[in-house]
Write a structure and sequence with these properties.
With about 180 residues, this protein is α+β, with helices and mostly antiparallel strands. It has one domain (about 1-170). It has 7 helices and 5 strands; from the N terminus they run βαααβββαααβα. The protein has helices spanning about 5-20, 25-45, 60-65, 100-110, 115-130, 130-145, 165-170; strands at about 1-5, 70-75, 75-85, 85-90, 160-165. A 3-stranded antiparallel β-sheet has the order 2-3-4. Strands 1-5 form a two-stranded antiparallel ribbon. The longest helix is centred in the N-terminal third of the chain and has 22 residues, at about 25-45. The radius of gyration is 16 Å and the shape is globular.
């Protein structure tokens, strides 16, 4: 099955699936997924000259947050999180806890009827891997199956083809061999 979609909802869903596989509840996982996709989008926009640099060491959440948030290491990023009455949530750029329901609606809106199939393919991949491999290679695995888009500014926000077979057949990179 092949679906036309841009990369952000694919990364959001993949990161959520990874977070669940690593033991987070679904609502926490959804907010972590959205945070990771946001960081990736910012990094891409910055590399294309579409976003300005932040001041050294400044994260947007620290500008307006009342208290310094906790940071959770996830998919190569330090994600600001807060413990809410509903559970752990990633924080948005204003320092507020993200809404899992809003993330779920976003994914459903972008993937439509294919959302369950895409989630299933991603869960199958995540379930085949150990937590240690997922911690180390989740983003690299995403890069192996993400939709192909044109390079440069032309590809910003462009839809590409997501092939579920590429998800289910993705393999982690081989561990480097030690020299004895």
């Amino acid at each position: 099955m092949k679906i036309r979609v841009n990369r952000a909802p694919v990364l959001t869903l993949w990161a959520a699936v990874v977070a669940e596989r690593l033991g987070h509840d679904r609502d926490t996982a959804l907010t972590l997924g959205r945070a990771i996709a946001g960081y990736a989008a910012y990094a891409k926009a910055k590399s294309l000259g579409l976003a300005e640099d932040r001041e050294a060491g400044e994260e947007p959440q620290k500008k307006r947050a009342k208290a310094a948030p906790q940071l959770l290491e996830f998919m190569g990023r330090r994600v600001p999180v807060a413990l809410t009455p509903q559970g752990l949530r990633a924080l948005d750029s204003s320092g507020k806890p993200m809404s899992p329901a809003a993330v779920e609606r976003y994914i459903a809106g972008k993937l439509g009827d294919a959302a369950a199939d895409v989630r299933g393919a991603m869960a199958s991949l995540a379930d085949r891997l150990t937590p240690a491999v997922l911690r180390a290679q989740a983003f690299h695995l995403y890069e192996a199956f993400r939709p192909e888009i044109p390079a440069g500014v032309k590809g910003w926000g462009a839809a590409g083809e997501l092939d579920l077979e590429r998800i289910t057949s993705a393999r982690p990179a081989a561990a480097p061999r030690s020299r004895a």
